[in-house]
Design goal:
The protein is an alpha+beta fold. It is built from 4 helices and 3 strands; from the N terminus they run αβαααββ. A 3-stranded antiparallel β-sheet has the order 1-2-3, with no helix packed on it. The longest helix has 27 residues.
Length: 161
Amino acid sequence: MEIKTAKEDMSYCRTFNHIAVGFLIMGALMTCSQEPSESSVAVIEPVMIPSEDGPPDLSGIWQALGSASWDLEGHAASKMPVTTVIGAHGGIPAGTSVVIGGDIPYLPDALETRNANRADWANLDPAAKCFIPGIPRLTYMPAPLQILQTDTEIFIAYEWG
């Protein structure tokens, strides 16, 4: 049995560590320096399957992804009253407008009402109190919905509530 000194053991550990670090750096450089190939970027085109009569069948599970549930117009990120308690989870994410032209064309009285509602939204918003937000807002909340369609009727089942 061969007996090694502490100095030889340390030399072995140092060599092993240098090799391991070298492999990690090499692996990181290989993954970071690769250009994405055209085949790795998938573009998914929506497919509308027509029913026998011609209009599309909307049946399925759907979900709106975006920040329209916070504001239909473009908006910057901002704090909520609970942000100081739960941190960024209580923040409002920034978002782009889903309105053609960017702004909703309010009449002056309606704009005044909207601004008053925004000023006290934490107390006025039903979703902030875990109540159903209503239609059409519920459709663009960040939760899935299911559409069941027959030849004569459409049923929309929301997950909220």
